[in-house]
Here is the input.
Amino acid sequence: MDADTFKKDCLPYGGNFFRVAYRLLENAGDAEDVVQDVYEKLWSLRDSLSAIRNVEAYGVRITRNLCLDKLRSAAYNVETCSAESLKVEFPEETNGRDLSNDVKTIWKIAASLPYNQRKVFRLRYYNGCSPSEIEKITGLGSVNIRVLLSRARKSVRDIFNEESK
Here is the structure.
C-alpha cells in the first residue's frame, strides 16, 4: 500500500479513533498521542491491511488496546498528577513531607474506586476541572458531583491512612 492509498483508506477514521481514545483517557492530549500511535501501527502494517475487511474497526481495536495499556500503567497516573494539586485538597495529610510516593499511593487507591467516584475524582484532581466543568462533561448534577467527590476523598483518605500505619 502506498502513501496515497493509506491516506485515502485510513486517515478519514482519525475522528473515530480520537473519540474512542478521549472517552477512555478523558484527556485530549493523551488521546491525540494515542491516535498518532495508531496511525504509526497502521502504517507499519500497511502491506497486510488489504487482508483486513474493516480497517476502521481494526484501528478502533488498536486504539482501545493502546488506551487500556496506558491506563493500566502505574506511570500514567503518577506522571499526570502533581503533588501540588493534592496538597490543596488534602492539606492535613502533607505535613510538609515529600509527596512523590504518596501521590503514587493515592492514584493506585483512586483506581480502585467505583466508576463514577473514580471518574469525578480523576476529572477534578487529574484534569483540574471545576465542578461546573465536571457537570457539563458527565451530565451529573452538582449535588451528585459533590457527593461523589466527598465519598471518593473519604475512601481515598481512609485507605491511605490505613496503609500508612
Q: What stands out?
A: The chain has two domains: 3-72, 82-164. The CA atoms of residues 128 and 145 lie 14 Å apart. The chain is about 75% helix and 0% strand. The first helix runs from residue 3 to 10.
